[in-house]
Amino acid sequence: MSNSPLITIYITNYNYGKFIEQSIESVLNQTLQDFELLIIDDGSTDNSKEVIEKYRQNEQINIIYQKNKGLNVTNNIAMRASKGKYIMRLDADDYLENNAIAEMSAVLESDDELGLVFPDYYYVDAEGIRIGEEKRHNFEKEVSLYDNPAHGACTMIRLEFLKNLGGYNESFTCQDGYDLWIKFITHHKVTNVIKPLFSYRQHGNNLTSNEERILSTRKKIKELYVEEHLKIHNTLAVIPVRSSFLKEVNWPLFQVNGKSILERKVDECLKSKHLKKVVISSSDVEILNYAREKFHTYDGVSVLERPREFSGPNETLGRTLEQSIQFVNNNFFTVEAVMSLSLEYPFLKADTIDDAINTLALFKADSVLSVRPDNRMYYQHSGHSLLPILDQSNFTKLEREAIYKGAGGIAVSTIENFGQNKKLVSGSISHIVVDQKTAFGVFEHFDFELYSSLI
Predict the structure, then answer these.
(1) Tens-digit pLDDT profile for residues 279-299
(2) DSSP state of 392
């Protein structure tokens, strides 16, 4: 074998002894054989070593045993050990289609400016039975907003570009693919192969099942990149407050551990690194009196009376936001973005507020909305029967048919975009995904009872 293979594939393994043989064999059976395979065992305590050692004599394979170091340290070890022009990670519980590296390397070979390429993939269960297919947009024809990253594994990367970008950030213990994605989309071209080229195994031990850890790490990755490379928009937060929608209690003034819902929302705004000004806007006399007394000593917080017609049930936030923007401008404070924060979401935290502002800058979007993916089935009545919307019962998960619901109560727009469209959520709309707790909203009596029991 040549000392300089075209491709380095590395398999990362930790206690996947029952899966790793299929993973290794899927590499050895590739139609393109111009590769080296690194098998990096990250301190397994199961039978992994017994399985791996069966491949000791294969000249295409190098085996590395190490104490448990975590994913990104291991990624950098592979990067430094790699002899290939391109490099790709394969998780030990996943496996490739026979033509995977031929297809992806051909795309990279065709364009020297391409930094990475990634494919669609199959979902399989613990036994390897196909249970679904992930099909992404065509990046050559359909994508201009790059806020949906490639899968971390089975993305083929130009090694020279990866090294020039400093490799992987070892302070992050997961979401290596997201860290990589942010670096590459801001410096190089990326694209995809619109066919499934590997199988992603879903089982109880997947790292990706830990949503809270994933979302927290993504926030930190974005925060770090924006702080180091981009300018943050001076952002105004507007908290529109109507009189209570609950008969039992005045929700904005409802006390939780000695603080009202409104005060708790303001506190989170003040903890934000990136919000520069907060305006509480209301036409309710009781709320205005409370807010003026409570927040008159708060630096950066203003209370603004809005005309009653601005807060009608069918009124959009447009005129309320215009009034708030004009108010801060008249007080010699210039803002470049405006954010609306809803009181109906009591679990929203400051880091999620900052995440929306970072996302606006990072993806050069016109606006950002906080959302929650919704995988439930939805139906419409045809007159003859209930029919699934978007054919969601299909085997294939199409990215264009993914459903998100607004949740968390954040919407933010650049001032330029808001001025042009008179809508907060308009233009090129990016998104942040919030966790299930942040997505919980209080809109009716049952929600209030549930919230009361939670706290």
Answers:
(1) 999 999 999 999 999 999 998
(2) T
